[in-house]
Design brief:
By secondary structure, this protein is an alpha/beta fold. It is about 40% helix and about 15% strand. It has one domain (about 15-175, about 225-275). The protein is globular, with a radius of gyration of 18 Å.
C-alpha cells in the first residue's frame, strides 16, 4: 500500500479516541437540545463486526449521520471501532473538516478501505445512496434510495458480516429540496461553464435552506432545529456468503432488493408511529 498524506483517509491508524471524547459534549448539545433526538433499537446491535447501512437525509450537512455516529459512541463507547466511508469530494471542498473527520473514523469511500476496516476487526458505516440520496426531493423524503449501488452488498457477502439498518426521520426537513437540475447544468458545462469548486457532481439540486434561501448546487446548509428520530433495525443476514456469492450478480441483486424492501418497511413503520408534524 503506497504511503499517503496524513489526514487523507487512506489509513485506519489516524482514528483518535481522544478527539472523539472532546467532541462528545458538542454532539450531545445538538442531540439533546437542537434536534431533540429520540432513538430506538440499539439493543439489536450484535457483537462483532457489522456493516451499518444508512439512508442519507438532510443535504451535505447530514445531521442524521452525525447524530447516528454520536449514538454509536454513546452506546458502544470509544474503543469499539467503526469507520465511516466518506466521499472523496469532502477532501477537495473542505480539507480541515475532512482531516477532523478522519480522527473520528472517516476513511475514503473505496472498497480497499472498507475491506481493510472489516478485516481489521472493526465495523463500517456506509450510506450507499450518496448525493442522490441526501439530495432527493422533499416529496421522496420517506423513500429508501440507494441509487442502485450494490457495492455494500458485495462487501457484506465477501466478509460474512450482517447488515444493520440505520434509519432516521426528520433530518430531510432541515432543508427543502425542490428538485435536481444536473442535466441542464451538465449541458452548460459542456458549453464551457465550469463546475462549482471545479468538481463534477452527480446531482445539482435546487433547494431552500439557510443561509442561502434559494440554493443552486450541492452546497452545505445550516440545518433547521427540527426534531429527529433514529432507528436501528434487526440485523439482516443472508443465506450464502463468500466470494462466489459476492460475484453472483443475480444473488447480489436479490440481496439488495431484500435490504431495500426491509428498510423501506421499517421506515414506513417509523413514519406511521411519528406525530403528524414529522
Amino acid at each position: 500500500m503506497r504511503e499517503e498524506l496524513p489526514g487523507s483517509g487512506w489509513s485506519l491508524d489516524e482514528r483518535d479516541p481522544e478527539t472523539i471524547r472532546r467532541l462528545m459534549p458538542l454532539w450531545e448539545w445538538f442531540y439533546r437540545y437542537y434536534f431533540r433526538v429520540e432513538t430506538q433499537g440499539w439493543e439489536r446491535l450484535p457483537e462483532g463486526r457489522v456493516l451499518v447501512v444508512g439512508s442519507h437525509n438532510g443535504g451535505l450537512s447530514s445531521p442524521d449521520m452525525i447524530m447516528m455516529i454520536y449514538d454509536w459512541f454513546r452506546h458502544q463507547g470509544y474503543q469499539r471501532r467503526i469507520y465511516g466511508l466518506m466521499h472523496p469530494t469532502v477532501w477537495k471542498i473542505n480539507r480541515p473538516l475532512a482531516e477532523l473527520a478522519v480522527k473520528v473514523g472517516a476513511v475514503q469511500a473505496h472498497p480497499r478501505m472498507a475491506l481493510a476496516a472489516l478485516q481489521s476487526g472493526a465495523s463500517v458505516l456506509v450510506y450507499p445512496g450518496g448525493a442522490q440520496d441526501v439530495f432527493r426531493p422533499f416529496s421522496e423524503r420517506h423513500r429508501i434510495h440507494f441509487a442502485g449501488r450494490k457495492g455494500f452488498i458485495k462487501l457484506a457477502l465477501r466478509e460474512n458480516v450482517p447488515i444493520v439498518p440505520a434509519l432516521s426521520l426528520g433530518a430531510h426537513e432541515t432543508l427543502y429540496v425542490i428538485g435536481d437540475c444536473y442535466d441542464f447544468m451538465k449541458r452548460l458545462h459542456d458549453w464551457g461553464l465550469p463546475w462549482l469548486f471545479n468538481i463534477d457532481p452527480v446531482v445539482f439540486p435546487v433547494y431552500l435552506g439557510l443561509p442561502w434561501g434559494l440554493a443552486l448546487g450541492p452546497l452545505p446548509h445550516l440545518p433547521l432545529p427540527l426534531k429527529m428520530r433514529t432507528y436501528v433495525g434487526e440485523p439482516i443476514r443472508f443465506e450464502c456468503y463468500g466470494a462466489e456469492a459476492a460475484n453472483d450478480r443475480i444473488y447480489v441483486q436479490a440481496c439488495y432488493d431484500r435490504v431495500v424492501k426491509t428498510m423501506q418497511a421499517q421506515l414506513d413503520a417509523l413514519v406511521a408511529a411519528a406525530p403528524k408534524n414529522c
